[in-house]
Write a structure and sequence with these properties.
The chain is α/β, with parallel strands linked by helices and 245 residues long. The chain has a single domain, classed as Purple Acid Phosphatase, chain A, domain 2 (4-Layer Sandwich), CATH 3.60.21.10. The protein is 33% helix and 20% strand. The protein has 8 helices and 12 strands. The protein has a 6-stranded mixed beta sheet with strand order 3-2-1-11-12-9. The protein is globular.
Length: 245
């Protein structure tokens, strides 16, 4: 049975609905999330409620930490902090409790690990092979036990450490993790992609075959943009949805 991994939904209900429709057609099994259900876009309560009621498990992201009051977002740029605090004001008490209770990492499906940023630091961005190597070689890093699903960068793809120790970058597509190989796999962002493809992104994983497939789903971007602007959130966030940046 394939599972789905979603990340960085960022209060984009239109994108989430499109992904869920695609998952229903594919008859995927359990769905997990990698955090940042909130921030940037206009429907935080809707997206957190979906996770509360439907996700098999998940972790918190840095925007979620601000939205539920775990952190104040002092390291955010001003527009991002404004949007996270805007989300906080529009979440129900139950949703804030849910976000506050999410862990920084979570073991699922036997040997897979869910994190938001990286196994060693939930706020770390992993963009490069050198950064991936540091994560894979860090003493005590949980990445040693199996595939790691991470988000935070909003860029679909990942990194694999081959049996000979060489670390390679993986483009999104289809991939099978071989014997003795380890991987950091990023599903990309549902709600605010930044890889110049505005379509929502997620991945499917078959634990039995250790196979991964990245999926892109078109959605009503103009509807999401209108909601951002109507909410009085920074117009820059609406533009990012259109441009995929």
């Amino acid at each position: 049975m394939k599972i789905a991994v979603l990340s960085d939904i960022h209060a984009n209900g239109d994108a989430l609905d499109a992904v869920l429709g695609d998952l229903a057609r594919r008859r995927a099994g359990r769905v997990y999330h990698l955090g940042d259900l909130t921030g940037y876009n206009a429907e935080p309560e809707r997206c957190v409620r979906w996770a509360m009621e439907n996700a098999a498990g998940g972790v918190y992201g840095n925007h979620d930490a601000v939205a539920c009051g775990r952190k104040q977002g002092k390291d955010f740029h001003e527009a991002a902090r404004r949007a996270a605090l805007w989300s906080r004001e529009r979440l129900s008490p139950e949703s804030r409790v849910y976000l506050a209770g999410l862990p920084a990492s979570l073991r699922v499906e036997g040997d897979a690990l869910l994190v938001h940023g990286s196994p060693c630091d939930p706020d770390r961005y992993v963009y490069s092979i050198d950064q991936a190597m540091e994560e894979m070689e860090s003493p005590g890093s949980a990445v040693a036990n199996g595939p790691v699903f991470f988000g935070h960068t909003h860029v679909a793809g990942g990194f694999v450490r081959r049996g000979d120790g060489v670390v390679e970058q993986l483009p999104p597509g289809k991939f099978r993790l071989g014997p003795g190989e380890r991987a950091l796999l990023n599903p990309g962002s549902v709600g605010q992609p930044r890889d110049r493809d505005p379509d929502a992104s997620y991945l499917l994983y078959d634990p039995a075959l250790r196979e991964v497939e990245w999926v892109r789903v078109p959605y009503d971007i103009e509807s999401a943009r209108r909601k951002v602007l109507a909410a009085g959130l920074p117009p820059f966030f609406a533009d990012r949805l259109r441009d995929g940046t």
